[in-house]
Specification:
The complex is a heterodimer of chains A (59) and B (445). With 59 residues, chain A is an all-alpha fold. Helices cover 53% and strands 0% of the residues of chain A. Classes of the chains: A mainly alpha (59), B mainly alpha (445).
């Protein structure tokens, strides 16, 4: 049984011509390549920035 | 971490795989678009762009689909983004020119969309009649505005105007044959109008037939002569009948053959899509596994850094106390000494360093600060004197000499109550100390 009220409430307003610029600026253009590159960069950064080494020698 | 860096070598392979997946989704989307399945095509094209945002053809086609569905601003967004990502020799430039070239086109789009948004507002806030009036106007001016038609069909069905709903939905399905909402609403419309039953019966009858028995006799019809007029009529009728036969019998089979081929292509594409989906799922699993390993390594690294941070800060503090004391900045050394968090010093070599610091700060350092207090008192700088005595007592709170000196200082400033409290503490806490007797004298006992 279709619930017409729910179906009508699911509709969202259409993008207006005046809001095109905002929509373009807000567009999320991240794709799978970007995600993988970010992952690799973070891994490389963390590997390069080694923490202070603790030793058991008297300093 | 080293494992992640080695993946760089495989990055090119992964990128190639991503591009292939993207192209596969684009091809599937293109096939769907050719078969007027616009909703299905849009979903596939969005997936294509998810794998490769530079898939210009997919983005341009997505824009065309939006345009075809009446969502012109959405189409413009896609084409502008497409031009930005791929400025050279891009078809999107032509599409944008076409839209802007038509005089008043953008203004009409603006007006139609504003009216739709207004009608939607009315529909969602109880003013269904106003919404239907607005939507009727819109679909007259923009017959392919699918969203407006769907909303209108919903409102018609809700108000029981089933035939009108059916007519509106037919037009939607003509443009977007697999629009899921339209199909659901059309199903509902047919149930309400009884058309579903009629169609079911038609299907049954199309496949029923009577078998001839062996003893059936076919009687030939009697022949009679036709007049010339009748002959001409018969010829014309025959030609008309031939066209009718062609239309009714030959053309459907041609169409059926075309549909069979189209369906075979769809089946083939579906098989390819399944393979692509399997690759996508495999890639997603690998990504999840890599992501999880990365998070685990990052967590261990953070924990290691936190432990080292505590050690490093305490080490630096102890070194600074040592340096300040050696340079004669006893007060600075004392203040730093009071800020040591002993709970963070649990292992060597810090424990050894702390012991050294305790030894000279609680002896020579303490004595130096008490002397500074007394010198300040003698020089008339009473506030400084009290500050130094307090600092010394913070380091060693139960030293009777420092307590006695502070109490005498307070007494000299007529702060008798505070002074007496300290005298009493010396008398009670250090009865064998020479300062106990002095405290009793000063107290007046």
């Amino acid at each position: 049984m279709i619930n017409f009220k729910d179906e009508i409430n699911r509709f969202k307003p259409s993008l207006e011509v005046g809001d095109i610029e905002k929509a373009i600026a807000k567009s999320d253009l991240t794709d799978m390549s970007d995600i993988m590159m970010q992952l690799i960069k973070e891994a490389a950064f963390n590997e390069g920035d080694a923490p202070l080494q603790r030793t058991n020698e008297r300093l | 971490m080293r494992g992640m860096l080695l993946c760089r070598g495989q990055m090119r392979d992964y990128k190639d795989l991503l591009f292939r997946i993207s192209n596969a989704y684009y091809n599937l989307g293109l096939e769907k678009a050719k078969l007027s399945d616009l909703s299905g095509a849009a979903e596939l094209l969005k997936k294509s762009l998810h794998f490769n945002k530079y898939q210009t053809d997919a983005r341009n086609l997505l824009g065309l689909i939006y345009y075809e569905m009446g969502e012109v601003p959405e189409a413009l967004v896609q084409w502008v983004i497409s031009l930005n990502l791929d400025p050279e020799d891009n078809r999107a430039d032509h599409y944008l020119d076409e839209v802007q070239r038509k005089p008043g086109a953008l203004e009409r789009e603006t007006a139609a969309i504003r009216k739709f948004n207004q009608a939607l507002y009315h529909a969602q806030h109880g003013a269904e009649d106003l919404a239907m009036i607005g939507l009727n106007q819109i679909v007259r001016e923009k017959p392919d505005f699918i969203k407006a038609r769907l909303l209108l069909a919903l409102l018609y069905l809700d108000s029981g105007q089933n035939t009108k709903a059916g007519s509106v939905l037919m037009r939607v399905l003509k443009t977007d044959r697999n629009n899921s909402l339209a199909l659901i609403l059309m199903d509902e419309t047919k149930k309400r109008t009884g058309k579903a039953e009629v169609e079911k019966n038609r299907m049954k009858n199309a496949f029923s037939h009577r078998r001839m028995e062996d003893d059936d006799v076919i009687l030939p019809k009697a022949r009679r002569q036709a007049t010339p007029g009748q002959t001409v009529m018969y010829i014309i009728g025959g030609v008309a009948l031939s066209f009718l036969v062609f239309w009714l019998m030959i053309l459907p089979s041609v169409r059926r053959q075309y549909n069979i081929e189209a369906n075979e292509r769809i089946a083939q594409n579906s098989r390819e899509l399944n393979m692509v989906n399997a690759s996508y799922e495999e890639l997603s699993r690998q990504y999840a596994s890599v992501s999880s390993a990365y998070e685990d390594a990052a967590g261990r690294l953070r924990a290691f850094e936190e432990e080292n941070a505590a050690f490093t800060s305490m080490y630096r503090l102890l070194v600074s106390i040592n340096e300040d004391y050696a340079a004669g900045n006893v007060v600075q050394a004392a203040e730093s000494y009071l800020s040591i968090d002993r709970s963070m010093i649990t292992e060597e070599p810090l424990l050894g360093m702390l012991q050294d610091v305790d030894r000279y700060m609680l002896n020579e350092g303490f004595d130096a600060i008490v002397s500074m207090g007394t010198d300040s008192w003698n020089g008339g700088r009473l506030e400084d004197a009290e500050h130094y005595y307090d600092l010394a007592l913070s380091m060693k709170g139960d030293d009777p000499e420092a307590m006695y000196l502070k109490a005498r200082l307070l007494q000299s400033q007529d702060r008798i109550t505070e002074a007496n409290a300290i005298f009493d503490a010396i008398i009670g806490g250090h009865p064998e100390s020479p300062y106990a007797e002095r405290a009793m004298e000063a107290r007046g006992y």
